[in-house]
Amino acid sequence: MIIRPDTEGDDEAIRQITEAAFAGQPYSSQTEARIIDRLRSEDALTLSLVAEEEGEIIGHIAFSPVTIAPFAVGWYGLGPVAVRPDRQGHGTGSALVRRGLDMLRKAGASGCVLAGDPAFYGRFGFRNEPALVYEGCAPQFFMALPLSGALVSGTVTYHPAFGAE
Ligand SMILES: CC(C)(COP(=O)(O)OP(=O)(O)OC[C@H]1O[C@@H](n2cnc3c(N)ncnc32)[C@H](O)[C@@H]1OP(=O)(O)O)[C@@H](O)C(=O)NCCC(=O)NCCS
């Protein structure tokens, strides 16, 4: 399995994997594939990595800029992340998260936030941070990981693509 930045022509596979992974999940808005498409078309897909196995894409992760008011720069939102249902539970999702964070860190990012399950994301160092407020999510599922420097406080806003319907 290799992890690489997406290239032209990967879009349809990313869409299919994202739709299949989120299908029927109670916490899903079923808009995740459209969010990725809109981030791409609005030049807000900071980092888009695919996991490839024997020439087939089996997973994908997206990172996009977030704003944290009153003032913080260099923070990104993780997600959506998806692994093809028949390949879940074999380390692909973790590898995508780790590689993405590593690349953000090397690029000088300040930190990363996400809305997700602490049982999964805690292993990468994400912690629930009450000082960071994201109105789209129950507080216990909103987490942050500083990548350089200190944790910041404030209100987090994702790219408008996350309001896609
Ligand atoms: C979440 C997801 C990307 C993880 O990818 P993966 O390749 O299955 O993950 P890994 O094999 O690296 O890690 C598996 C671990 O994650 C846990 N896990 C997988 N999906 C999880 C979920 N939705 N919530 C909490 N934990 C989850 C597994 O229980 C396992 O835990 P363990 O190592 O303690 O046994 C994948 O399961 C998926 O696509 N799920 C559907 C879409 C989704 O929920 N995306 C994330 C939204 S926040």
UniProtKB/TrEMBL annotation:
Superkingdom of this entry's organism? Bacteria
Instruction: Name the CDD domains on file.
Output: NAT_SF
Keywords from UniProt, A to Z, are:
Acyltransferase, Transferase
Q: Which InterPro entries match?
A: Acyl_CoA_acyltransferase, Bact_Acetyltransf, GNAT_dom
Look up keyword Transferase and say if it applies. yes
Q: Tell whether Transmembrane is among the UniProt keywords.
A: no
Q: N-acetyltransferase domain location, by residue? A: 1-148
The record, for Pfam families, names: Acetyltransf_1
What's an example of a GO molecular-function annotation for this chain? acyltransferase activity, transferring groups other than amino-acyl groups
Looking up PANTHER family in the UniProt record yields: ACETYLTRANSFERASE, AMINOALKYLPHOSPHONATE N-ACETYLTRANSFERASE-RELATED-RELATED
* Name under which the protein is recorded: GNAT family N-acetyltransferase
Q: Which organism is it from?
A: Sinorhizobium medicae
Write the lineage as a comma-separated list: Bacteria, Pseudomonadati, Pseudomonadota, Alphaproteobacteria, Hyphomicrobiales
